[in-house]
Amino acid sequence: MIRVEHLVKTYPGQAAEAGGGRLPSALRDVSMSVSRGEFLAVVGRSGSGKTTLLNVIGGLDRAWTGLVEVDGRDLAHLPDRDLSLLRNRTLGFVFQAFHLLPHLTILENVTLPAWFGTSDRDRADAEGRARQALERVGLGNRASDRPTRLSAGERQRVAVARALLNRPAILLCDEPTGNLDAATGAAVLDIFLELNRRDGTTLVIATHEPRVSEAAGRRIVLEAGRMVEE
Amino acid sequence: MTPRAQVGLIARFLGRSRGHFAFAGVGLVVGSATLAFFLALSLGIRERVLNRLYPVNQAELVVETVRLFGLGIEVPSRLDEASMAALRALPGVTGAFPKQRSRFQAVLWGGREVIGRDARVEAFFDGLDPALILDELRASEIEVMGPEHPGTACSTDVDCGSGGRCDAGSCLRRTWWDAFRDPGGRLACRADAGCPPGYACSGGRCAVPCGEGCPANSTCVLGECLRACANDAACDPGEACLGTAMGRACQRLSCHLDDARKAESDDPDVLRGTVVPPPGKASSEGVPERCPAGTYCATDSVLVASGACEAPIPVLLSPFLLEIYNRVAATALDLRRLSGLEVLVGVPFAMKYGESYFVADDSWERRAIRRCRVVGFSPKAMDFGVTMPLAAAQRANAMLRGRDAASEFTSVVVTTARNEDLPRVISDAKVLGLVPAPRSEEARKAANMLLILSLVFALVSLVILGISAINITHTFLMLVTERRVEIAVYRAVGARLLDIRLLVLGEAAALGVLGGVAGVAVAWALGQGVNVAAASILGRVPGAPADLFLFTPGVVLAGLACAVLFALLGAWVPAGRAARTDPATVLSQG
After folding, report:
1. pLDDT at B440
2. B5, A97: Cβ pair inside 8 Å?
3. Cβ neighbours of residue B528 closer than 8 Å, sequence gap 6 or more
4. Gap between the Cα atoms of B536 and B542, Å rounded
5. Is A81 on the interface with B (CB under 8 A)?
6. How far does the CA of residue B552 sit from the closest CA of chain A (Å)?
7. What is the b/e burial string over B97-126, where b = at least 16 CB atoms within 10 angstroms of the residue's CB?
8. Cβ–Cβ < 8 Å for B535, B40
9. Is the ipTM of this complex over 0.95?
10. Sheet holding B254-256, edge to edge
């Protein structure tokens, strides 16, 4: 489902300074793969390259070298149109900071991916799908609220519902429980586990929380941009 | 992203940021309003003032005058049919319409109906080809007298008042513009030299000879071309459709008054005289006893009581004449002022050829009285005199001064298919010794000046729009910065680079449309204000347009298009910056 080989990512400015040998690259020769329906935890301390790895796999970051294949497609050679379609249909993102749009209602936030679909039919039945997704994360009764009226845990569940709207095969989650208390985090984790077990959704979760990595079927550890353990 | 989704998102953006957009759009409104205002003003003045004098595809040419030691010498000496043929042969020329001024002295009297007593003044006139002016006459008549179909329902002509008629259940008001055509007439003569061009003297009167064949719909009767007819309606006023050896043809009715002095009478009944039946005809054979209604017995001269039935000559007046009358004559002579052009339409008057208040009169046998009627107004009419159909003027000049005078034209109006052909035609006409008439040249200079002013104001409006584009750039850069997280989320859920760029440009285009619509509306409202102000200043100027502005679809489109274009220009850089938003960086930040 996901194949990464010899991935190197360097941020602007790092290369010059790295030439002096003082700063490492964000990702250094990372190779890994994730099978369909697998739950992979990417573990490491802050700045270890977890988020960068997810951004590269999700096609949000395009400046890297190496090979990255998602659902059989080489991201390095995908034009923007196809890469955007991949993010819209195959991938779902959940961010640590939720990134809900405050001027939209919960329902509108969840239907957002449908606005960027390739046909108006996507949008026509988006509301129904959004309500289902909200029911699934337990927020069916908050559809007309604004995100600002929700707790952090509820916002993260809305973000999960948004990621699920187009029923993606792969869910990329960056510290999804990082801003949540233990109980709320556990509830969100339960949703991920259910998605993985019941729907067969491939999960790649970047985390530094042991309970999340323990729940995963497999884990890789990044340290200073290098994969040190699998 | 589908266009419909794009429109939906743009509408949301606009609603959210209306405060910013209202501020950014002020420049667009001012710029497009300025552009639309001056374009409409320029077009209005060109179309409603200058073009009434001379349309952009017309020019009046006169014989070039070379001034040598203070003396005017005209080269060539004549502007005649040969010159017309040469002009019509020039590339780009679609028509050449000659004009001819009166070549003799005359006086006129009349106007009792509108000013309370008859005015008696020296008369000047010229002749103009009706084909040149009929459309303009109709338009100005509708402007002054209202639509030809006022919308009043009717069952008979009586329901439509004086002069009106019932046309398919709806009243058709009396029209005058279509009366400006040669009413025809008969000229007594002693030799061909006393007849207009194309006529020969036959049996003491001028007739179209059959020598080179007759025109279409005419038949040769006793060496004279006469119009074939089925009934009197096919003939000119004053003619009757009578049987001849060659079939039925229109023949002008001969007549006589009781006394030659009766020709000066103002009693229409007296003026109709008695018809003299053609040889071998009698009243019972379709020959009326008196000149038909609407015609009068036009005597050959003031010395004789015999003549032919003719309709009054239709004439046009210049709007400036009315202004001069109101401002000068009416005040000085304590005459009734005239409220508007329409009160003069239909007014009859008489003209006596050969007499003058300034110079010696012509011989008695040359003097003759002809009746006229005002049928319209045109800036192309003589400022100090009246304008009649060219053929009527030629007939009058031939009567008093002979064929040579009737053959020579005073000026010619040339028309071209395309505006841009006119300068070349004017240049080519110079070879023929013809140059633009002063009035035509002034109109052209005014049009050029107007063009320059329009360009200057268009430039000013473009500068305003340019400044507004810079303002839009700043506003949109600020908005793009504010929305960077939103844009990054869009990218994460599937928005293409192009989608982001189009969203920003779409907002700018919508802002441009709104600004353009508001701008054109402001321009229109300002125009109405200027019209009201101008009406209070120019209200007494006859022929002054009620609306100085011409908001054509082109003007509206130009206002809108420029607003949209500059809004897009202003948003171009912000749209690029929005598209370059790095979602990975933005979304990784908390």
Report:
1. 76
2. no
3. none
4. 13
5. yes
6. 38
7. bbbbbbbbbbbbbbbeebbeeebebebbbb
8. no
9. no
10. B274-276, B254-256, B306-310, B296-299
Residue A71: count of CB within 10 angstroms of its CB: 14
CB atoms within 10 A of CB A37: 15
- Closest CA of chain A from B492, distance in Å: 6
Torsion of CA B337, B340, B343, B346, to 10 degrees: 120
With an 8 Å Cβ cutoff, are B1 and A117 in contact? yes
| Amino acid symbol at B177 | W
User: CB pairs below 8 Å between A and B: how many?
Assistant: 79
Q: Which residues contact B86 (CB under 8 A, 6 or more apart)?
A: B432
Question: pLDDT tens-digit profile of B399-458?
Answer: 999 999 999 999 999 998 887 788 889 889 888 888 888 877 787 787 788 788 888 888
Cβ–Cβ under 8 Å, residues A130 and A158: no
Residue B435 corresponds to which amino acid? V
Helix axes A182-194, A152-164, angle to 10 degrees: 10
Structure tokens at B111: 């106007």
Beta bridge partner(s), residue A44: A222
Confirm if B254 and B276 have CB atoms less than 8 A apart. Answer: yes
* Residue matched to tokens 């001819």: B100
Q: Look at B2 and A118 and tell me if their CB atoms are within 8 Å.
A: yes
pTM for the complete prediction? 0.64
Q: Chain A closest CA to B476's CA: distance in Å?
A: 18
Of A55, A85, A123, nearest to B494 by CB-CB distance is A85
Q: Give chain A positions within 8 Å (CB) of B497.
A: 80, 84
Tell me which DSSP letter residue B157 carries.
Answer: G
User: Which amino acid type is present at position A95?
Assistant: F
CA B223 – CA B214 distance, rounded (Å): 10
Q: Which residue of chain B has the CA closest to A113?
A: B493
State what percent of residues in chain A have pLDDT above 70: 94
pLDDT one-digit tens code per residue, B491-524: 999 999 999 999 999 999 999 999 999 999 999 9
Tell me the chain A residues in contact with residue B496 when contact means C-beta distances shorter than 8 Å: 80-81, 84, 116
- Average pLDDT across each block of 10 residues of chain B; the chain has 590 residues. List them in order: 84 81 87 91 80 74 72 64 91 93 94 86 94 88 82 84 82 88 92 92 90 86 90 91 88 93 91 87 74 94 94 92 81 81 88 93 91 91 92 95 93 87 87 84 78 86 89 91 93 93 94 94 94 77 72 93 94 94 84
Contacts of B452 (CB under 8 A, 6+ apart): none
Bridge partners, B93 (sequence order): B416
Average pLDDT over residues A49-56: 92
What single-letter amino acid sits at B183?
P
CB–CB contact B588 A174 (8 Å) = yes
B332-342 pLDDT, tens digit each: 888 888 877 77
**B452-461 CB contacts, 8 Å cutoff, 24+ apart:** B453/B42, B454/B38, B454/B39, B454/B42, B457/B34, B457/B35, B457/B38, B457/B42, B458/B35, B458/B38, B458/B39, B460/B34, B461/B31, B461/B32, B461/B34, B461/B35, B461/B38, B461/B562
Residues 6 or more apart whose CB falls under 8 angstroms from that of B379 comprise B52, B53, B318, B319, B320, B543
Q: Which of residues 32-71 of A touch B (CB under 8 A)?
A: 51-52, 55, 58, 60-61
User: Per residue in A85-127, pLDDT tens?
Assistant: 999 999 999 998 889 999 899 999 999 999 888 777 777 788 8
Mutate to test the interface with A, among B489, B498, B500, B589 (most CBs of A within 10 A): B489
CB of B45 closer than 8 Å to CB of B443: no
Contact B588 A118 (CB under 8 A): no
Give the N- to C-terminal CA distance of chain B in Å, as an integer. 28
Interface mutation vs chain B, best among A46, A52, A88, A99, most B CBs within 10 Å: A99
- Which residues in chain B touch residue A127, judged by CB atoms under 8 angstroms apart? none
List chain B residues with CB under 8 Å of A99: 485, 488-489, 492, 587
